Amino acid sequence: xxxxxxxxxxxxxxxxxxxxxxxxxxxxxxxxxxxxxxxxxxxxxxxxxxxxxxxxxxxxxxxxxxxxxxxxxxxxxxxxxxxxxxxxxxxxxxxxxxxxxxxxxxxxxxxxxxxxxxxxxxxxxxxxxxxxxxxxxxxxxxxxxxxxxxxxxxxxxxxxxxxxxxxxxxxxxxxxxxxxxxxxxxxxxxxxxxxxxxxxxxxxxxxxxxxxxxxxxxxxxxxxxxxxxxxxxxxxxxxxxxxxxxxxxxxxxxxxxxxxxxxxxxxxxxxxxxxxxxxxxxxxxxxxxxxxxxxxxxxxxxxxxxxxxx
Length: 310
Hints:
The chain is an alpha/beta fold. It folds into 2 domains: about 25-45 and about 250-305, no CATH class; about 45-245, Rossmann fold (3-Layer(aba) Sandwich). It contains 6 helices and 15 strands. The protein has helices spanning about 65-80, 115-125, 135-145, 180-190, 215-220, 235-245, and strands at about 25, 30, 35-40, 45-55, 85-90, 110, 160-165, 200-205, 225-230, 255, 265-270, 275, 280-285, 290, 300-305. It is elongated, with a radius of gyration of 22 Å. It starts with about 20 loop residues before the first strand and ends with a strand.
């Protein structure tokens, strides 16, 4: 296993990202009959972006029939889920600049795509004409980083989780002048803010004469699943992804002032409808309110009103 020293090249900085956490109304607390009202927007934790980075050289030909049977089932798994998904594919060839592979009319698949299984089958057929190397980390960084191709705009959503799946018959050999493994890990871990889930998984050689040590170290550091492309069934990835995505988690809402605890009232609305309010707890140390049994649906408005401590 390749051991990585987590550190960045001097002068290198991860691109700034937009945080997607419960957002306090920009005006802060507002007074209503001596009460303060703090308002939050619940992020959509069911929004997930999936990026497949696939080696496109002759080394993959021996695995093609197995993968051809796997790709349609990925889309079946997604369509059967309750996720709000984007699915895109890039090759592991830096000559493609991390540009998403184009389908018939789109560069990624979402819940509204017509014939999604057929489109996904088409865009995962990346051929075998790539260059000799496998620059999976470099192409993921190119696809999602601050210099991403304009055709990728809209695929990556700042308010969505991110799950990347590398599929290769060999190890990554991205040049460190593009991005080193330690730089990639540091960037990726900052790229997806909580409470959204993120992972990096790999269907690659995990043992034998030439295990994909760099890919495996990235998976180990970021968190994800490893499937041996030579010996395992790639379908094993799907239950692993289900576990990695997990259930939506309740997050704390920071209050703008210290409240009189007995005066706290919590109201949750979605559109014009007022939702039942689940049990919640006030944390005096952090001055936060948090639901006990999971979060409201994405897009819900949470209004927390209270008398401030005088």
